[in-house]
Amino acid sequence: MFDTKNNKNKRIKILEAALYLFSRKGYHRTRMREIAEHAGVGKGTIYEYFESKEDLFTSLIVHLFKALDEYAFQKVKPNMSASMKIKALVTGYLELVENMPREAIMVMTEFWSEGIRNHLKFDFRDMYKKYLRITRKILEEGIKKEEFKETVNVENLSRSLLAFMDGILFHAMLFREEIDLERITEDFLDTVLKGISRR
Amino acid sequence: MFDTKNNKNKRIKILEAALYLFSRKGYHRTRMREIAEHAGVGKGTIYEYFESKEDLFTSLIVHLFKALDEYAFQKVKPNMSASMKIKALVTGYLELVENMPREAIMVMTEFWSEGIRNHLKFDFRDMYKKYLRITRKILEEGIKKEEFKETVNVENLSRSLLAFMDGILFHAMLFREEIDLERITEDFLDTVLKGISRR
DNA sequence: ACATATCGACCGACCAGTCGGTCAAAATTA
DNA sequence: TAATTTTGACCGACTGGTCGGTCGATATGT
Fold it and tell me: How far off is chain A from B137, nearest CA to CA, in Å?
């Protein structure tokens, strides 16, 4: 049927317009009318696909997170060493983030700031938990394989890595030109991995 | 004169009310009427002290940043080793942040998200530059004193440390109960310092 | 002809900022 | 000291405009 595809196209178009505008003007400053115009649909049509402005916002976030989810994890291959896996996961995440239109990051930042206050129904802690789980598993595996010291605190370090990823992402946004994201991350991972590797 | 003190009190009262409400409901959801009520003044009075809602918001941020500025840096004493200085700086920052009402962090997060989009006049990149400068200096000193390897990339690592600080702060907000900020930071710094120390 | 999708004019709730008036206290005068 | 004038901090009702969401009309597809 054409219908489904047509619907999907229109839904995507609206999401794209929302991304474009939310990222530039922020959620609260963006008008539904603008989104409609930018998407080339009537304002009422948006409400055929999304219940409300907030629903549109969270749908957009889910949409973006999905891409992130799919991309970064597939970079980690089973035959890699634990160190390689860590590198792959972190750089995969940052790569994605660099390739992703900067717009997406902006929207996510706002989503953080809204989400933290529990103003939104969607709970994105789950996303983090998944990352945490995977990182923990890699670290544990590295310890078991005697690649990392057994004194490594898996829980704490995985949180630190995650924290670094978010932080450096934020800094990249703030200092766009001045920062070489890749080099910084490489340097950082080398340092950390040196710190936890067995001699 | 009594006038000045009275004025100051009222100004502070308004700022406190703004902190209370902005942190809970976010900038856009907070009404000037609410702030006035909470501060125990008339709505019009707010406009005697602040030009606009945005002016009130940025004034609040400046107010908060000042405390941060003064606290964290004084933790670094000249006679410490470079490693100790790094630890002092980072934990000082986090201590401050933990003692600071969580409200303040919330507001700052929103400020980030607004500031990134250049919606506000106040540019808080300067804050970061100061942190960067200090961290760089400590690292350079550590290298010169042969405490750290000379292969350490000062520029990159200082950015990484800063990134970690922001990231972990954000995570602490997200996962309040579940996280032991201090332990994680300690662990992390040990790992990194081990990674850059000469044998 | 019927069903479904689309549209945008319209509505009413909402809100930042204004402005003319009030009044207590400071300054001036007697 | 007491009476009188001046000041400006304070207030909140009001305004002009905004915007999310609705719904009946219209278009499109079957």
Answer: 18
Q: Which residue in A103, A83, A135 sits closest to A38, CA to CA? A: A103
- Give ∠ CA A36-A42-A43 in degrees, rounded to 5: 60
Amino acid at B133: R
Residue nearest to nucleotide C19 (CA to C1'): B44
Query: What's the pLDDT tens digit per position in B63-72?
Result: 887 777 777 7
Structural domain of B101: 4-196
Both tokens assigned to B58: 């940025």
> Contact A117/B125, CB-based, under 8 Å?
no
Helix and strand tally (H, E) in chain A?
9, 0
Nucleotides of C under 7 A from a protein CB: 4-9, 14-20, 26
Bridge partner list, B197: B148
Q: Domain count of chain A?
A: 1
**How big is chain B, counted in residues?**
199
CA dihedral A18, A20, A21, A23 (to 10 degrees): 110
pLDDT in tens, A57-108: 988 888 887 777 777 778 889 999 999 999 998 888 887 776 666 677 777 7
Q: What is the CATH number of the domain that holds A79?
A: 1.10.357.10
Contact yes or no for B106 and A125 at CB 8 A: no
How does DSSP assign B144-199, residue by residue? HTTSB-TT--HHHHHHHHHHHHHHHHHHHHHTGGG--HHHHHHHHHHHHHHHHB--
Report yes or no on whether pTM surpasses 0.70: yes
